[in-house]
Structure formats: C-alpha cells, structure tokens
Amino acid sequence: MLRSCAARLRTLGAPRWLPEGWRAPGSEPRAAQRSFSSEEVFHKDYAVPNPSWNKDLRLLFDQFTKKCEDGSWKRLSSYKRGCALRVKDFQTHFLDPKHMKEEQTSKAQLFTRSFDEGLGFEYVMFYSDVEKRMVCLFQGGPHLEGAPGFLHGGAIATIVDTTTGTCAVITGGVVMTANLNINYKRPVPLCSVVVINCQLDKVEGRKIFISCSVQSVDEKTLYSEATRYASASPEISVGSCCTCVTSAPLRTGEINVY
Amino acid sequence: MLRSCAARLRTLGAPRWLPEGWRAPGSEPRAAQRSFSSEEVFHKDYAVPNPSWNKDLRLLFDQFTKKCEDGSWKRLSSYKRGCALRVKDFQTHFLDPKHMKEEQTSKAQLFTRSFDEGLGFEYVMFYSDVEKRMVCLFQGGPHLEGAPGFLHGGAIATIVDTTTGTCAVITGGVVMTANLNINYKRPVPLCSVVVINCQLDKVEGRKIFISCSVQSVDEKTLYSEATRYASASPEISVGSCCTCVTSAPLRTGEINVY
Q1: Strand partners, A56
Q2: So what family is this one in (chains A, B) (predicted)?
Q3: Fewest CB within 10 angstroms: A15, A16, B4, B219, which?
Q4: Local confidence band at A97 (pLDDT 50, 70, 90 cut-offs)
Q5: ipTM of the complex
Q6: In this structure, what are the phi and psi dihedrals at residue A94, rounded to the nearest 5 degrees?
Q7: Do A248 and B147 touch (CB under 8 A)?
C-alpha cells in the first residue's frame, strides 16, 4: 500500500503556501461554528491570543499582525487535529490497524495542541514568502517543565521541529525523511516567551536546508540553534514520509499546520 | 549568582548511579504515602505498569524487571516533579523571578509526566552499569499525535532527549551544554511500543558521546537514530546548565530522573 502522500496533496490541490484560511479549489468553506462542542474544539483556530498569553506574546502578535496588513507576512492557522474522515483515510494507507484501537483513535490530538489553555504550547507562526522566513512566537507553559523553572529540552525540540517542519513543507512542498540537529546553549525559563526565527538556507535539487534560532524577546539571549535537513519528493512511501506526516496533518479541504 | 549545580549535587552526596529508591546519605527516607492528594501525585513513581500499558510494554517491563534480580540492571524511578522547597531553592539561583509568577510555579509539572494516564508519555528506563547501556520502553499515547495515526516528531525528540540526557547524567555526572542530533527514518505509529537503546560511546576528557536507536519491539523496524554530545563539568554556570537541569531535577534527599 504505497500510495503516495504527494498524490493526496495534489488531489487536494494543495499549494506550497499555507496562509490563514486557505482552502483547496472547489472545497467547502469550514463552518464557523459547529453544534457539537468537540467539533468546535477541533475546528477552533488556536493560533490567536487567549487569556493565558502574557504581555510579551500579545505585543509580538500585534506587531506581526500589523506586518500582515500589506500581505508581505501571513499568519498560519493551527488546529487540534484533522477531521475524522481524513484521519481514517490517512490511517488506512499509512498505518497497520493492529497498532491502534478505535478507542485510542478517538482520543488522538495534535501533540502541540493537546494541553489545556496556557499549560503547554502557546504559539503562533507567521511566514514571509518574500523573505522565505518563518517566525514562531512561543510561550512554554508550566506543564512543559524540565528542571524546576525551566523548559524541558524535549519541549524546545518539539517547537523547533514544528517550526522547521512547517517551514520545510511551505518552501519545499511535501518532504520525506528528516534530520533535526539542535544545540542547546542556555536553559529557557518556564512561562517566558521566545522567538524562533526560521529560514530556508538553500535548496539543492530536492534537498532542503533550514536553520533556526531560539531567542529571547529582546534578542539578547540565544537559547538554542538548530538545523533541519529534508528531502522534497513528489512521491512519498510509507517508510519515508516522516517529515511530511509530522508537518502537515490533513483536514477537509485544506492543509493545516501545527 | 553563579552558585554551581555541581556543588549542590556534592552537598547531596549525589552518586553517578541513580538506582531505584536511592537517597543521599543522612537524608530522610520518603514517606510511602502522604495525606494530601497532590503530594501523593508528586511522590508517586510513574515508571511502573498502569492499566493503559499494552501487552508489549508489560511483557518488556517483566523481562527487564527479571534482569534486575541479579543487580546487573536497575530500574529508574520517575516522578512528576521535585518538592516545593527544592524547586524554590533551585529557582532562586537559576531563574530571574520576573519570569515566573507564584501561580505558574504551583502548576509546574515535568513535561513527560504531565499527561493523564495513557494519553501521553508512558515509559520506564532501565540501566546496566556493566554494559554502560540504557533502555527506555516507551508507549506514545494519543495526545502525542503528529500526522493522523503517528507520533509527533517532537514527541520522539522528547523521549530521545529524556533517555540520552539521563544516560549522560548517569555516566558523566553533571553535564553542561548539549547537542542533540536526530535522524527520523520512519514514522512511529501512535500507541505502539518502541524500545530506545542508548549507550555511552566514548568519553574524551570531559566530553561525553552518547548514541541511541528507536526500534520496534521485534527490532525489525528502525524508526530513528540519534546522537548526543555533552560536556561533563564539576562547575556549572547559569548560562550553560542546560543538560544538567533538563536531565536531573532535584528532590528532597535524592535525585530523580525523567
């Protein structure tokens, strides 16, 4: 069952660019509100301010939202997970059913959006097509603790993976295999806001090279640096769609990002 | 305020070896049960089977538990976080108070233990001092999803960081700065069990090199490979204690691991 992920994206008419509210040609627009609370949760865009966001995060959000006004930057929407139908379709082709029971499937949620408001990953990503640059504004909540008072190294790796993976998909389309290389330089205080600057360094044939930095809001502290190597491909097999599948979960009529 | 983390560990009489139930000389043994439910949660050892563990994880746990009988292997305990007093002490010296409000501090939980039973990271680590090898048995729950049906790349990075970080602390003592390099080869099905084999490759002066693999239970599928470079040091400054603080949160009279 080596049906390609790329073929699915083509079917959906997926562009390389994933701006806020984008949907595939001919697809139905999403309902603004659903009658079921669970549906509301899954269709809610989480990449917008909520009461847990601190002053730094709100200020940065406002600054980048302003940059979006002339179209040079775009905010990327983010949801808890794809719709049930799409999930089932995806699993049929990529997952051995023995691994997952129906009960578990129904509980599945996107890792970075599976926390209650303010406790885990609070973030929003903005992308500039002109600059080939992505910025992720991130506030790591109290349930992401490593040592007392600091973010867990895995939480930093997660937001770095999320940002670089999304950047890879946007700039390179579907991506297969990946290497993530992170240098941890300083511990990140829990509940502080950091800015992840991510850019496409170069494209060599089907190879994509991305780098990013994790900095304090005032840019005086460099917490981490990371690089991501990935290989873009029009055909993705079951065994090598790691980056693709961790970077762009599919939804009805659109591609959402983390 | 550059009081070293290493000095703290020396004060506690911390060994490089962190077996189940280890405590510092002269320290009081932990109460088996506390009267407050929150205290019970923080003092509960989560590295033992619970109803969410599937058959594969239970079988592997039993196999490694048997290996522990002759003392060649040790199971590592794992808790939600350190005691309030230790946390406060740690923060005083390593964290600018402006970053964290009391309300946030009280909600802090170890990232990998902050999920409800079965939804997130279910894992247990065993270590062989003879073989200088660590094994982490890991079941990734439905709230760790990346693409539909698969683990998020960040969740894999997190359990890899946890395992290699703990291995670094055990084999090298206190560790400063770190590089984590992960090759994602195949996507990991959600709710399946994987085995992370981690070993100390070499020690050059104060430099520690660790490598690990993430494999299926039958060892037929290699999901990821990773390396970790770290530098052991007797003196850790605020700016470079990343690996140390994300690997070995302190508790009253003992050092717990992830």
Answers
A1: none
A2: Belongs to the THEM4/THEM5 thioesterase family.
A3: B219
A4: low
A5: 0.78
A6: -120, -5
A7: yes
